Amino acid sequence: MKRASIQDKFYIGIIFFSVIYLVIRIFMFILITKFDIIIYSKALNINLTHIAWFMDIFTPLVTSFALFYLYKSRIPSLIPFIIMLISIFKLYPLFAFSSDYLSVDNNVTTGNYIISNHQSTGVGDGSAYLTIFVYKEKFPLLYTKQGRYSAYIPSSSTTYKNYNSGKYTILKGGKILSYGDFSIPLK
User: Fold this and answer.
1) 181: containing domain
2) Whole-angstrom Cα distance, residue 112 to residue 131?
3) 88 and 127, same structural domain?
């Protein structure tokens, strides 16, 4: 019986961690698509799904090399390599259509919130259509959508300038987020 070398054990460990990563990604996919949950770190100020997209490229690549080394065959290592190629092609559209989130930092609010700002300019009458999605933390790193709030605002107004620069104020004991004339309830 042949003993596995340290190098073989290393590659088996890589494959094992890749399988664990696959299970975590399936769980993340279910949370994001079925339950409309955002996975966000306020400490790092980053949407953790964006990091996962890059890991979707790195993990299959490393797994492909590990499988190729262990089995000395291209067939088992081809599957993760194809997954990596698909991940590369999906990366641009995901970033093009993904949202950036802004952490609501204030000691007055009753919970942790993040917001996503969207705007449509060129309405024709010198105003912009502003939309804010508000998410509230339900569990650490997991945010659920609280609401969607929209308003037409003149492009020359202070509210529009505050909105574009991300300057907001928290009013009424942490229950209202305001950009001036555009107020959003924090439930």
Assistant:
1) 102-185
2) 20
3) no
Q: Residue 1: inside a domain, yes or no? A: no
Pair (111, 58) in one structural domain: no
> Which of 131, 56, 92 is CA-nearest to residue 48?
56
- Say whether pLDDT at 2 is over 70: no
Of all residues in the chain, what percent are helix, strand and coil, respectively (each to 5)?
A: 45, 30, 25
Residue 77, token pair as written in the block:
């290592």
First to last CA, the chain: 65
Final residue before a domain boundary, out of 66, 82, 97: 97
Question: What does pTM read for this prediction?
Answer: 0.79
Say whether both 28 and 77 belong to one domain.
yes
Pseudo-torsion of CA 104, 109, 111, 115, nearest 10°?
-30
Number of structural domains found in the chain: 2
CB-based contact 110:174 (threshold 8 Å): yes
Is a pLDDT exceeding 80 seen at residue 35?
yes
Q: Which two tokens stand for residue 81?
A: 């390599």
State the pLDDT confidence band at 124, using cuts at 50, 70 and 90.
low
* Residues β-bridged to residue 113: 104, 136
Does 180 lie in the same domain as 135? Answer: yes
182 exposure class (CB count in 10 Å sphere: 0-12, 13-18, 19+): buried
| Range 36-45 average pLDDT | 88
